[in-house]
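Many introductory courses stop at the sequence. We go one step further.
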Amino acid sequence: MGSDPISSTFTWNLELDIMILCIGNINFDIIFPINRLPGPHEKMICEDTMFGFGGSAANTAYWLARLGCDVAMAGAVGDDLPGKEHIAALADAGVNVAGIEITESSTGIASIFTTGREKRMVRSQGANLHGEFRPELLSGCRMVYLSSGNVNLAKEYARYAEEQDIPVFLNPCSTDHSELLGDVTAVVLNLDELTAITGVQDPDEALLALDKQVAVVTLPEGGCIAVQGFRTKRFPFPEIEPVDRTGGGDAFAAGFLSAMKECKPLGVCAQRGNVLAREVIMRWGARPAEIDMGRILE
């Protein structure tokens, strides 16, 4: 544990033309910027409201595409304007949207209350709880990324991918998804999620408690801790005062995975994730369009 050296490359061979399949939530976000979180029964006035596309898996798919990755999205939206517009936005970014189903349920909605450093979220899952298992989406796939969404459906994808020797990364956005840990190759999560799942306060010990050869936790003060080969290493990053943390973890996962698919050293994977996450949380919303992606790839 601690600063023991870690192998600089990953153990499996990922080809450069890899197709990453992201599976999970596709939401429409409503963001309320506030100065503090409201108290019990308090009616707080919010002077501004922002709208945008979100959903943990969809955010990661979006950023992977912006980073030049061959990525597809599997999930479900409603037969409504937010759902159709979201599909169009993902396709415009370069995501293969053939795996997105249109259902009779409404598109998922996330109401986000953010003070910059802190945020609270209320989600209506809607269509995210629906959709069918489609094994054909894994044809030619070399990596699966699971984040939020229908737990039972995620289990089917994870187990099928394991049978096909496809590595599966999990972002367990809630403790409900912790039951998937036994079916995945690696885990990417934030410190709150890690503590809730393991019950262990020390992040190094908590990462090791996951019993995964590859696991990464992002830290609230900036940077991350990664474990590979059952040893941990910290990758610090300058602390900043965030504007809005919405989507920061999803962006980190995209940066990390995009570097990993290029077989970059672990430190490069962590750095790219840290840089993209910082660029996102210094702006409003999960997908600020003005980010210079060339700088992320430097």
